[in-house]
Design goal:
- The longest helix is centred in the N-terminal third of the chain and has 31 residues.
- The strands form four sheets. The protein has a seven-stranded parallel β-sheet with strand order 11-12-10-13-14-9-15, sandwiched between helices. The protein has a six-stranded parallel β-sheet with strand order 16-21-20-17-19-18, with helices on both faces.
- About 40% of the residues lie in helices and about 20% in strands.
- Strand 11, helix 12 and strand 12 form a beta-alpha-beta unit.
- It has 23 helices and 21 strands.
- The structure holds adenosine-5'-diphosphate (ADP) and magnesium ion.
- The site of adenosine-5'-diphosphate has 14 residues, from helix 10.
Length: about 700
C-alpha cells in the first residue's frame, strides 16, 4: 500500500533507527548473526552494502570464454579433485561445466575447499581466466553457490554479495536487506533537488535499491556515485562550516605585507626563491593581509624550502607590530629553526627567542617576560609554547610544523594564545590531494613541488639490499667516512622486543661499535633518551665527532646535517612509504649526493611493491598516492591519530572528481546558508551532522 502523504523527517529517522531485531524475517538466531555483523538498526541493514557483485546479467557460455577475461561464469560442479604433487603442496581442482565447455577452479594449499562443493550443484565463479595445459581455469575464484533449485533464477541478474557471518546465509541476508530497503523506501530524499539535477544523481531511494539489487552493472555504478557523493558532501559540509566559523565569523588581524622588515628579510635571503616558493609566499601574505583569519597548509617535500617561505610570514608580523609563534614537534627541530632562521631575523632586525622544555627556570622566566611585554616578536619552540604560563602580548600568527605530529587540540591551543590568529601549518609528509581535502578540508593548501637544487639528476639514490650484501653496505659506510662524510643507520625499534622480529637501535649501536665499526665513532639517538642526551649526541654528530649515528625515526623530522651521505635502513619493509621517503630526505642535503640502502625482507606482495616504489620514484607526491592505494588512508596516516572520518562508500583513490564537486557544493551551500537553516537545506544539514558529528563539533571547539 502506498502512503498518500510523505512521512516527516522525524518518522524517517525513527524508521531507520528501529532495532534490526524487529525487522521482518528476523528471528532470534538471525538477530544474533546481525549483531555479529554490527548491524543494530534497520538503517544499518540498509547501509550494509554489498562488497561485490556477480554479474550474471550476461553470462557467457563457457565455449565463448577466453583467457585473460575477467568475469563471472556459471556451471554445475562436474568433478572435485585433490592433488598432492609435493609433500607441502596440495591443489584442489573443481571442474564446472555447462552444455558448451568446462572450466577449472583451482586452489593451492586450501585442501578444505574440496569439502565446500558437491557434484551437481550450481555455482558461479568470478575471477580472471587463464589457460593451462589446454584447460580454462581461474585461480582462487570468488565462489557463489547458486543452489540446486533456485540457481537458474539468478541468471539475467546481478547478484549482490553481502558480507555475512555464521548462522545467516547470503540468501537470507539478501532477503533481510531487501525488506529493510522497502521499509525506508518512501522517505523523502534529504538532498536538495537542485543538487541532484546538477549532477544527474539518482534519488536516494533509487540509489539504495540499486546499490543492493542493481539490474545491471551500470546501475550499480550510478547508485554508488550517488551514495559516494552523499558521503563526501556531508563530510565537506562539516569542514566548510568549520572553515566558515574560523575564517568568516570572526574578524582577524589584517597584517601589513609591504613593510620594511619584510623588505630587509628579502634582502637578507642568500638565494632567490623558486617559483613555487614565490607563489606560496604570495598566497600566505594574501591571507595575512585580509582581515579573515588565515587557515592554510603548506605542503612540501623535505628540502623544498618551507622554512624560507615561513620566514616571510614572520617578517610581515614584525611589520604589523604583533607576534608570531612557530612550533616544532621536537626540540632538535626547534633548535634548528633558531639556528637557521634566527640569523635571518637578526639581519632583518626582528627580535626572536627559543622556548623549549629543557630551558632552565631563570632563562625561561626571561623569555616569558619578553614575550608577555611584546619585546620578543618571534618565538620558536616545542610544545612548551602552548603551556599555560606562556602569554603573548599580541599573537597574530601561529605556525605549526610537521602538524601531523600534533593533535587538533594542540594546534588549537596555540592558535588560541592569540585572538583569531592566522594559522599556517606546514608538513613534509606528502599527503595526496584527496586525503588533504578530506582530512584537512577546512584548510587552504599551498604546494611546494620544486626543489631549490632540483635541476638535473636526483641527489639521492635508493637501493634495495639483500641480507647477503650486508658487508658491502657497511663497506660503503666506511668508505664515506674515509672521505670525511657521515652516515645514519635507522632502526624500526628502540629496544629489543621478543614480539617484533626487528633490529633495535640500542642493540645495533652496541653491535656496530663492537663488531663492525670498531675503528669508527658510533652514536645513538632515540626518542627514549632525555632531551639533553639527544641534543648532546646531535651536537657531536653535527660537529663530526660521531661518524655513524644509529637512530630511530626521530631523525625523520627535519634533522639536517649536510655532511651525511649514506643511510642504511634496517627492516625497511616495516616503514610506510611516506616515512621512508622522509627518512631519505635526511641525506644528500649538502654538496654531496646521497645514497640510501634499504635492508628489507618483504614478505607480502604489498610490501614488495612498496619497496620497489620507493626505489623507483623520487617524487614524494607520487609515492604518497601509491601508499594511499596500497595501504589505505588509515594505515597511511598512522592509525593512532589519523583523525579521518570513516567513508564507507566513497573512495579517496577513485572518487577524486566527486570529491571536488562535493567540496565546491559544500562551500557554496555554507556561503549562502551558513547554518543550513533554510527549509530546503534542513534535511541535508540534519543528515550531515548525523553522519559526521565530529566534523561539526570542531566548529564549536574551533
Ligand atoms: P624544508 O623545511 O622544506 O625541508 P628547508 O627550508 O630546510 O626545507 O630548506 C632546505 C635547504 O634549502 C635549506 O638549507 C635552505 O636554506 C635551502 N633553500 C631553501 N630555499 C632555497 C632556494 N630558493 N634556493 C636555494 N636554497 C634554498
Ligand atoms: Mg589575516
Amino acid at each position: 500500500m502506498r502512503r498518500v502523504s510523505s512521512p516527516s523527517r522525524v518518522e524517517r529517522l525513527a524508521r531507520w533507527g528501529r532495532p534490526a531485531g524487529e525487522a521482518r524475517f528476523v528471528d532470534r538466531s538471525r538477530a544474533e548473526a546481525l549483531t555479529r555483523l554490527e548491524i543494530e538498526t534497520v538503517g544499518d541493514l540498509v547501509r550494509h552494502f554489498p562488497f561485490r557483485y556477480l554479474d550474471l546479467s550476461d553470462v557467457r557460455p563457457l565455449i565463448k570464454v577466453l583467457p585473460g577475461d575477467e568475469l563471472t561464469v556459471t556451471g554445475r560442479v562436474h568433478r572435485i579433485t585433490v592433488k598432492r604433487p609435493r609433500p607441502r603442496l596440495s591443489i584442489v581442482e573443481v571442474a564446472i561445466t555447462d552444455s558448451t565447455g568446462i572450466l577449472l577452479g583451482v586452489w593451492f594449499n586450501q585442501p578444505y575447499m574440496a569439502d565446500r562443493f558437491q557434484e551437481g550443484e550450481h555455482v558461479a565463479f568470478a575471477g580472471r581466466v587463464e589457460q593451462e595445459y589446454g584447460f580454462l581455469q581461474m585461480k582462487n575464484p570468488f565462489v557463489e553457490k547458486l543452489g540446486r533449485a533456485e540457481g537458474p533464477s539468478y541468471l539475467g541478474r546481478v547478484l549482490p554479495v553481502h558480507r555475512t557471518t555464521e548462522g545467516l546465509t547470503t540468501n537470507w541476508l539478501r532477503r533481510l536487506v531487501a525488506s529493510a530497503v522497502d521499509d525506508v523506501a518512501d522517505v523523502p530524499d534529504f538532498l536538495p533537488v537542485n543538487l541532484r539535477m546538477r549532477h544527474g544523481l539518482f534519488s536516494e531511494r533509487v540509489a539504495l535499491r540499486a546499490m543492493h539489487f542493481p539490474r545491471d552493472m551500470a546501475e550499480a555504478t550510478e547508485a554508488r556515485r550517488r551514495l559516494a557523493y552523499d558521503e563526501l558532501l556531508c563530510l565537506q559540509l562539516g569542514l566548510a562550516s568549520r572553515r566558515h566559523a574560523i575564517t568568516v565569523e570572526r574578524p582577524g588581524i589584517a597584517h601589513v605585507i609591504d613593510g620594511p622588515a619584510l623588505a630587509r628579510l628579502r634582502e637578507a635571503l642568500p638565494f632567490a626563491l623558486t617559483d613555487d616558493q614565490v607563489a606560496a609566499v604570495g598566497e600566505i601574505l594574501g591571507d595575512m593581509k585580509s582581515s579573515r583569519p588565515m587557515n592554510r597548509m603548506l605542503l612540501g617535500d623535505v628540502g623544498t624550502g618551507k622554512t624560507a617561505v615561513a620566514a616571510h610570514a614572520l617578517a610581515a608580523v614584525a611589520d604589523t607590530g604583533t607576534q608570531a609563534a612557530m612550533m616544532a614537534p621536537t626540540e632538535v627541530l626547534a633548535v634548528q629553526y633558531a639556528e637557521r632562521v634566527g640569523p635571518l631575523l637578526d639581519e632583518a632586525g626582528i627580535s626572536w627567542a627559543l622556548l623549549t622544555g629543557s630551558l632552565a627556570a631563570k632563562p625561561r622566566a626571561d623569555v616569558l617576560a619578553d614575550v608577555a611585554s611584546g619585546e620578543t616578536i618571534v618565538l620558536f619552540g616545542t610544545h612548551a609554547l602552548i603551556e599555560k604560563d606562556v602569554k603573548y602580548q599580541r599573537l597574530s600568527l601561529a605556525i605549526v610544523d610537521e602538524q601531523h605530529r600534533f593533535g587538533v587540540a594542540q594546534r588549537l591551543a596555540l592558535r588560541q594564545k592569540g585572538t583569531a590568529a592566522d594559522m599556517l601549518v606546514m608538513t613534509a609528509t606528502p599527503i595526496p590531494r584527496s586525503l588533504a581535502l578530506t582530512r584537512f578540508g577546512d584548510l587552504e593548501t599551498s604546494y611546494l613541488r620544486q626543489r631549490p637544487h632540483g635541476e638535473g639528476e636526483p641527489r639521492v639514490s635508493t637501493r634495495l639490499v639483500t641480507k647477503t650484501h650486508r658487508d658491502a653496505a657497511y663497506e660503503e659506510v666506511r668508505s664515506a667516512v674515509r672521505q670525511g662524510r657521515q652516515a645514519y643507520v635507522v632502526c624500526a625499534l628502540v629496544d629489543e622486543s621478543d614480539a617484533l622480529q626487528a633490529r633495535s637501535a640500542n642493540a645495533e649501536a652496541r653491535r656496530l661499535q663492537r663488531e663492525v665499526f670498531s675503528d669508527l665513532r658510533v652514536g645513538l639517538l632515540t626518542g627514549k633518551m632525555t632531551p639533553p642526551e639527544r641534543l648532546d649526541v646531535m651536537r657531536r654528530f653535527r660537529d663530526g665527532t660521531v661518524d655513524v649515528l644509529v637512530a630511530t625515526t626521530v631523525i625523520e623530522v627535519g634533522v639536517d646535517v649536510p655532511n651525511v651521505t649514506v643511510m642504511l635502513i634496517e627492516d625497511a619493509e616495516r616503514f610506510g612509504l611516506a616515512q621512508l621517503h622522509q627518512l631519505r630526505g635526511r641525506v644528500g642535503r649538502g654538496q654531496y649526493p646521497g645514497s640510501v640502502l634499504l635492508f628489507a625482507d618483504p614478505k607480502t606482495d604489498e610490501s614488495r611493491t612498496r619497496m620497489k616504489a620507493v626505489v623507483a620514484t623520487t617524487d614524494g607526491f607520487v609515492l604518497a598516492e601509491e601508499d594511499l592505494r596500497l595501504r589505505g588512508a588509515g594505515q597511511m596516516m598512522g592509525e593512532a591519530q589519523h583523525g579521518l572520518p570513516e567513508l564507507t562508500v566513497a573512495s579517496l583513490i577513485n572518487d577524486a572528481d566527486l570529491l571536488d564537486l562535493a567540496r565546491a557544493d559544500a562551500r557554496e551551500l555554507i556561503a549562502d546558508d551558513p547554518h543550513l537553516s533554510m527549509p530546503e537545506h534542513i534535511p541535508l544539514g540534519t543528515e550531515a551532522k548525523r553522519r559526521f558529528s565530529d566534523a561539526w563539533t570542531w566548529v564549536s571547539s574551533g
